[in-house]
Amino acid sequence: MIRSVKRISAIFLLGILTTGCATNNNLHNWGNYENNLFNYYDRPELQEAIVASQIEFLRELENSGKRPAPGLFAEAGTFLLLEGDRKGAIEFYQKEHDAWPESRPMMSVLINNLKDEQS
Predict the structure, then answer these.
(1) Beta strands of 42-117 (E only): which ranges?
(2) Which residues contact 74 (CB under 8 A, 6 or more apart)?
(3) Which three-class secondary structure state does DSSP give residue 1?
(4) What DSSP assignment string belongs to 73-85?
């Protein structure tokens, strides 16, 4: 009887300890970023569609009141800049700046440089 109580206690304790180590994978919403990024570089013929898909995902998140994972606004801005859309790049760099305080120094420099180049 005592052995079975000890076993049950050990199993219960093990269960508590392992659930305490679980991580919250829903902390940030990455959407389909990994696949999109891979395909962006692996399949150049899809780049325009991938950028459009990523931007649509970000706008849907914004409309739902959620914020994307750090760097996703900036990545979209860089995609747009590579396509020659400076105004779109500035818009998404500004969104990154506003959403993530840690990125403000870098985003400020990028935004200011792009605005200076437009003048």
Answers:
(1) none
(2) 92, 93, 96, 103, 107
(3) coil
(4) HHHHHHHHHHTT-
Q: How far apart are CA 10 and CA 4, in angstroms?
A: 10
Residue 118 banded pLDDT, cuts 50, 70, 90: confident
Q: Cβ–Cβ contacts within 10 Å for residue 56, how many?
A: 11
- Tally Cβ neighbours within 10 Å of residue 69: 16
Query: What pLDDT is stored for residue 21 in this prediction?
Result: 44
Q: What phi, psi does 105 have (nearest 5°)? A: -60, -45
Q: In Å, how far are 41, 92, 117 from 96, measured between CA atoms? A: 22, 6, 20
Rounded distance between C-alpha atoms, residue 31 and residue 36, angstroms? 9
User: Which residues have CB under 8 Å from 79's CB, separation 6+?
Assistant: 40, 47, 50, 51, 54
pLDDT over 80 (residue 12)? no
